[in-house]
Amino acid sequence: MSNLDPRPSERPLGGRGDVAHAPVRELLKPREVPLGGSTVVRRLLPTLGRRMVGAWCFVDNYGPDDIAGEPGMQVPPHPHIGLQTVSWLHGGEVLHRDSLGSLATIRPRELGLMTSGRAISHSEESPREHPAILHGAQLWVALPDAHRRTAPAFEHHPDLPVVQAPGLTATVILGDLDGAVSPGTAYTPIVGADLALRDGAEARLPLRPEYEYAVLTMSGRTEVDGVPLDPGSMLYLGRGRRELPLRASADSGLVLLGGEPFEEELVMWWNFVGRTHEDIAAARADWMGDGGRFGTVRGYDGAPIPAPALPPTRLKPRGRRG
Q1: Where are the alpha helices (DSSP H) in the chain?
Q2: Topology given in CATH for the domain delimited by 11-259
Q3: Cα–Cα nearest to 195, from 245, 238, 151
Q4: How far is it, in rounded angstroms, from Cα 28 to Cα 48?
Q5: What are the backbone dihedrals phi and psi of residue 267, each rounded to the nearest 5 degrees, phi first?
Q6: Residue 271 in contact with residue 124, Cβ under 8 Å?
Q7: Using CA atoms, how far apart are residues 116 and 83, in angstroms rounded to an integer?
Q8: C-beta separation of 118 from 100 below 8 A
């Protein structure tokens, strides 16, 4: 998914200086961003005061939207470097095309995982004939320096491992949870898990104390570590936890995000994650040039998204070190 902000700001990411060393309860409120077609997303990362959770560096939540008789999601071809995209649905379908020739329809609770590595381009759209409701999240994972120039790749995993407890079903999206390991390729110690809670359920989810965590609320009425949460919000939880108390007063859906704090300092601008101003400027020039580096997305009915202008000052990786 693209960041369609026509004036994207520089996002310094990484470093341990803004990582809570102990459990916290920090509520992150979203800002609404138009995405394309009839879709408006709630952006939760990066946000003021909180830029990353482990290697997770971008979180958009959208829906549930009634798109019957509407085009739904329409995101034209656009580029990425230095990151992975994770498409996660609770309702609807998203058709993925990319410059590798991949063509896949992502459905609820199936993993669409794209590794941009050195360069890739892709598009995302609701199929012409699509379900009435669109509801999901788009997530980015920053690649560590050792892997940020890896060959681009796309994975579609319809079947994912599940962890169950009374009233709770946890689907492991990426990384591992309580011994269950996702088939998706991960490059850092990380976890992403979809949590389905039944009405009245109370559960305690096992966590790793060395990870930092956050929980994105998708639907229902829940309490996470005693904090009531509305759909579309995210609660940052810090580190030092061995378990997480959960309670639902209606059938509810959550997404758990976590991982070891990301130590490297990064620059995220538009759809690029790099280490220097030169990384970003070169990627923009290549996208606006002949497109050879990013390839061509075939089959999408529309023109690629042009890159915004770079800001007048140099981009700097200013993530604080602890």
Answers
A1: 277-288
A2: Jelly Rolls (2.60.120)
A3: 245
A4: 9
A5: -120, 125
A6: no
A7: 6
A8: no
Q: Residue-wise pLDDT tens for the chain (322 aa)?
A: 555 555 565 555 554 455 667 899 999 988 888 766 566 889 999 987 788 999 999 999 999 999 999 999 999 999 999 999 999 999 999 999 999 999 999 999 999 999 999 999 999 999 999 999 999 999 999 999 999 999 999 999 999 999 999 999 999 999 999 999 999 999 999 999 999 999 999 999 999 999 999 999 999 999 999 999 999 999 999 999 999 999 999 999 999 999 999 999 999 999 999 999 999 999 999 999 976 999 999 999 999 999 999 999 999 885 433 2
**Residue located via tokens 């809570």:** 20
Q: Tokens for 171, please give them.
A: 């689907």
Cα distance between residue 2 and residue 7, in whole Å: 13
Q: Which of 156, 184, 155 is nearest to 172 (CA)?
A: 184
3-state secondary structure 9-21: CCEEECCCCCCCC
- Neighbour tally for 181: CB within 10 Å: 13
- What's the CA gap between 72 and 35, in Å, rounded? 10
Q: Where are the domains of the chain?
A: 11-259
Handedness of CA 42, 44, 49, 55 (dihedral sign): negative
| Inter-residue contact 100 to 151 (CB < 8 Å) | no
The two structure tokens encoding residue 186: 């991960």
Cis bond before residue 64 (omega within 30° of 0): yes
- Residue 144 has which token pair? 């560590």
